[in-house]
Design goal:
Blueprint lengths: L1 H19 L8 E9 L10 E4 L4 E3 L5 E6 L4 E6 L2 E7 L6 E5 L15 H18 L5 H12 L9 H17 L3 H14 L3 H13 L3 H12 L5 H17 L3 H17 L3 H17 L3 H16 L3 H17 L3 H15 L4 H4 L11 H14 L3 H17 L3 H17 L3 H70 L1 H64 L3 H21 L5 E2 H18 L4 E7 L9 E2 L5 H12 L6 E11 L2 E8 L4 H7 L2 H25 L3 E7 L7 E8 L2
Parallel strand pairs: 1-7, 9-11
Antiparallel strand pairs: 1-4, 2-3, 2-5, 5-6, 8-10, 11-12, 12-14, 13-14
Length: 733
């Protein structure tokens, strides 16, 4: 094993030396190319062309150039007339570089009248565009923020708009790994308008920049603020992350637990999964394997209920845990499941900043499985996974995994004594390392260029802010001039104010008149209701006295006395309620029970009866016009049940359908409305028309006064048109 390390050390020394002199080797050649405009194919002269090792040339009148270069070099083609293009040389073939004109996005032309509205709309458009390109093109995203902050129509961005713009800049910085710039931008955003979410973002940026104590202080200050439930979970999670980063496991777990309690109480499902996972990681790092296992089991179960991406992320995390604890069988099982599930998930939804940096790729999972077999000295089982890892890495241009897997495969073949394949794979490994070195060089160059571009754009925004502050001073002077103009217009304002006052007085007079008419109409309706009630009472008394008369005619003095006693009690209740527009539903039920008892006393051989009140009905909360139900019950007895040959049945049900409505159903199995009408005399028809007409008018007036308080539906019970059901719906208000 020591011999292998010596060989590798010697190889890297030789490789480093060769890399240092690579630019001076004989591999360079003269690259020829042409620069043309993309839309018109027109050649462009005087274009700057240079390589990343300092070679420089320009295009001639025909747009052509020649330059000394090597495969892997990066060309920079730039001019003030078009967007800069970066081209990586892949072979010695002549190249054609197509460029696009650098056109500034024009501002829309508006009038002074709609400047403020257009400014707000344009600002939102630019910020939306910045957010759209935030994760794909940092330069373009920052460019849109710059445009959003530029003055438009003589109007600078407001404090709220400035706060949003700098918050967006901070979001861009965080995504592209520039937490130091993010801190400055979030601070500027908060200085313009302080919000909880912006303070949370600042605390996160502190942590990303390894300013752990500043982050902890920011999170603790947030706990003293009025936080929403989700915000509270995020703050506790942030504190846990900081303590975990500073190796303070007890405080880390304590804060994660607090966040988990809030998330569980308010069913914030994604955070419940995340916090179980983070608690497990904290326990794992502190050596509490049993506790870590318990929480990882929880997080795995919860993650499976979320989206497939979250599930595979958690499986990978738990597989890493098993690897650290040398539970290789469980690690292999989870990584095998992850491989199967990755086939159904698009790679772009898994990768973070680049596909190479994500562990959730087939090449990395195969590599991890192979390592788990190697750790158990199962070399033959590891070989297929290493080969699959290399093939996947090659297909996805993942040189890092290809390098590691190829080196590992060489070591495995050496371990099992197959030195031929070991040497073959070692040669492949050397070739990949060389290619990776070139790629890393390019990435460093691109990163340097990227950071330079971001810094320049950030400086542009800073100068815009300075310009805005200067403009605000100018606007202040303009406002002072405006105040002088307003003083000169005071006379006009007084005149306009007087006219407005007169108009308001006229409107008030009209409203008062309308209200008076409405009150008068209400009073008329109330009077009509009272009149109808006075008509109902004699009609009811007359019918009751007829019953007493029939008992006297039959010389049944005892029955007459009993009936008169019950009747007097009923009359006392009726008279007590005669002046009331509404009485409690309980009183109406009591009155109805007494009335039905009297009618049954007279026609006991004709019908049985029952009055049912739903036990859930809150009768104390409902009111009803007095004597509203009695006419329907009287019709059921006098015109339906008493003409029936066999004994009939009368049912009255009170049921609460919802908190605002009660349904009253009066059902009889009498001869029905059609037969009853045929049996009536002319005098009876007149009486029916008058009694039922009164009750219908009462309901109509009540609905007009109290907005559909009562609804009545009458229908037959049986298909032969016998029996009658009256359904009366009464609303609380």
């Amino acid at each position: 094993m020591r011999y292998t390390f010596l060989i590798l050390a010697l190889f890297f020394g030789l490789f480093a030396t060769s890399a240092q002199v690579r630019k001076k080797s004989a591999r360079s050649f003269v690259l020829k190319g042409i620069v043309v405009e993309d839309d018109t194919n027109k050649p462009i002269a005087k274009v700057n062309v240079e390589t990343d090792d300092g070679e420089y040339t320009t295009t001639n009148a025909g747009g052509q150039f020649s330059i000394s270069a090597e495969i892997g070099d990066e060309l920079t083609i730039k001019s003030d007339a078009f967007k800069t293009v970066y081209y990586t040389i892949k072979d010695e073939q002549d190249i054609t570089v197509r460029v696009q004109k650098a056109e500034e996005e024009p501002y829309p032309v508006t009038t002074a009248k709609d400047r403020s509205t257009s400014n707000s709309t344009l600002f939102k458009t630019y910020i939306d565009s910045a957010n759209y390109f935030l994760k794909t093109d940092a330069a373009k995203s920052i460019g849109y923020v710059t445009k959003a902050l530029q003055p438009f129509g003589g109007t600078s961005a407001s404090k709220e708009q400035t706060a949003i713009a700098f918050e967006t800049l901070g979001d861009i910085n965080i995504h592209w790994g520039q937490p130091d710039l993010a801190i400055d931008n979030f601070k500027r955003s908060i200085s313009e308008k302080n919000t909880i979410d912006r303070r949370i973002k600042l605390a996160k940026a502190f942590m990303r920049n390894r300013n752990y104590q500043e982050s902890i202080s920011a999170y603790k200050e947030l706990l003293d603020s009025k936080l929403g439930n989700y915000q509270k979970v995020v703050v506790y999670e942030g504190l846990g992350d900081n303590y975990k980063a500073t190796n303070d496991a007890p405080n880390s777990v304590a804060n994660y637990q607090k966040g988990l309690s809030v998330a569980q109480k308010h069913l914030i499902t994604p955070k419940i999964t995340d916090l179980n996972s983070k608690i497990a990681e904290a326990y794992s790092e502190s050596g509490a394997v049993a506790e870590a296992t318990q929480y990882f089991d929880n997080s795995l179960t919860l993650a499976k209920k979320e989206n497939p991406k979250r599930a595979v992320e958690e499986k990978n995390k738990v597989a890493d845990f098993y690897n650290r604890n040398q539970n290789f069988d469980e690690e292999i099982r989870l990584r095998s499941e992850t491989l199967d599930e990755l086939e159904d998930i698009e790679t772009d939804t898994i990768a973070t900043n680049s596909k190479e940096s994500s562990p959730l790729t087939p090449q990395r999972q195969n590599y991890y499985i192979a390592n788990a077999y190697i750790a158990q000295d199962k070399y033959n089982e590891a070989i297929p996974y290493l080969e699959r890892s290399i093939n996947e890495a090659e297909a996805n241009n993942d040189l890092v995994v290809e390098k590691d897997a190829t080196r590992k495969l060489s070591e495995v073949y050496k371990g099992i004594g197959d030195f031929g394949k070991a040497a073959e794979n070692y040669e492949r490994y050397v070739a990949v390392v060389d290619e990776l070195y070139i790629k890393k060089e390019q990435e460093l160059s691109q990163a340097t260029r990227f950071n330079k571009e971001i810094a320049l754009k950030q400086n542009r925004i800073t100068s815009l802010e300075n310009e805005r502050e200067l403009n605000e001073s100018r606007y202040k002077l303009a406002f002072e001039n405006q105040e002088l103009i307003q003083k000169n217009n005071k006379v006009q304002q007084w005149v306009i104010g007087s006219l407005v006052l007169v108009a308001m007085l006229l409107l008030f007079a009209a409203y008062t008149q309308y209200k008076s008419v409405k009150q008068q109409r209400f009073a008329n309706n109330a009077l009509a209701l009272k009149s109808l009630r006075t008509q109902m009472n004699p009609h009811f008394i007359f019918n009751a006295l007829n019953s007493v008369n029939s008992f006297i005619a039959m010389s049944d003095e005892r029955a007459a006395n009993k009936y008169l006693s019950e009747f007097s009690q009923l009359m006392r209740n009726v008279l007590e309620n005669s002046d009331e527009d509404f009485i409690p539903l309980s009183k109406e039920i009591e009155l109805l029970e007494l009335y039905v008892k009297l009618e049954h006393f007279r026609f006991k051989d004709k019908f049985d009866h029952e009055i049912t009140v739903d036990e859930n009905l809150k009768i104390s909360e409902f009111v009803i016009p007095p004597m509203l139900l009695q006419p329907y019950v009287e019709n059921a007895v006098w015109h339906g049940l008493r003409y029936k040959e066999e004994k009939g049945h009368l049912s009255i049900d009170f049921k609460q359908t919802d908190t605002e409505t009660v349904t009253i159903t009066i059902t009889d199995d009498g001869i029905g409305r059609k037969k009853s009408k045929a049996l009536k005399t002319e005098n009876q028809k007149k009486q029916k028309s008058k009694g039922m007409g009164n009750i219908q008018r009462r309901i109509s007036i009540l609905n007009e006064m109290y907005k559909d308080k009562v609804d009545v539906a009458v229908q037959n019970v049986f298909d032969n048109e016998e029996g009658t059901k009256v359904v009366l719906t009464l609303k609380k208000d």
